[in-house]
Write a structure and sequence with these properties.
Histidine-containing Protein, Chain: A, 3-stranded mixed beta sheet, elongated
């Protein structure tokens, strides 16, 4: 089985800004390129922060309402540091949680959940940005066709990995939900088959109806008791 990694899903052509890039220029970049965040680099090209739409909106929230509606804005000093300033360094979020290209999709998803972020810059060993991975990128795995999932399970899992006879287990996939029918040689193989099938990229559920020819778990229990 070949699992997909961050390197397979990340966006490689990443637009970045410098610490002194003006607020307005960042807003234009986000709008024109239809992206929601840009990494901020220092003079050596290393990652020092991230500016998102939310960061820019915090700056905007500090401004007076031109229509005079709503409560008067608080002085800039009452907001988080930098929201009234006008460069990337002043409004960027730090520290930046990052990913590496060799991470599995599971690792990236866990990091996003743990840090409550929607995206992770992907960096190399010198903290240089080589890509960006977002929640949307990770969800692309679940857009795999049912046919692709079924073929991977049949050939990579059942035949190549477990060396089961062709036709011993029938695989049906509908909307990412895998149904397994058939019999395997030993009872101990049932949880192994189920675990490997659940781990196939794009699988959202598993309905296992597997039987077995020999209950090797019972024999092992008898030997242990004896």
């Amino acid at each position: 089985m070949r699992h997909r990694f961050v390197d397979d899903l990340m966006t490689r052509d990443v637009t970045s800004v410098q610490a002194d890039t003006p607020f307005k220029e960042i807003a234009v970049i986000l709008a024109e390129q239809e992206i929601s965040a840009v990494p901020v680099l220092d003079g050596s090209g290393r990652l020092i922060g991230l500016v998102s739409e939310a960061d820019l909106l915090r700056k905007e929230a500090a401004q007076a309402d031109p229509e005079g509606r709503g409560p008067a804005p608080r002085p800039a000093s009452e907001f988080e540091p930098g929201v009234a300033a006008a460069t990337a360094q002043d409004v960027m979020s730090t520290p930046v949680f990052t990913a590496h290209s060799g991470w599995s999709v599971v690792e990236a998803a866990r990091a996003m959940k743990e840090h409550r972020v929607k995206r992770l810059p992907v960096v190399d060993d010198t903290d240089r940005v080589i890509g960006m991975v977002s929640r949307r990128d990770l969800l692309r795995l679940f857009l795999r066709s049912d046919r692709a999932i079924r073929e991977e399970i049949e050939y990579d899992v059942l035949r190549s990995t477990l060396s089961l006879d062709p036709g011993a287990v029938q695989v049906h996939v509908v909307d990412g939900v895998v149904t397994l029918d058939g019999r395997v040689p030993r009872r101990s193989l049932v949880p192994v088959v189920e675990r490997l099938c659940r781990g196939a990229d794009g699988v959202v559920g598993l309905d296992s109806r597997l039987g077995f020819e020999e209950d090797d778990t019972r024999r092992a229990t008898i030997r242990t008791e004896g």
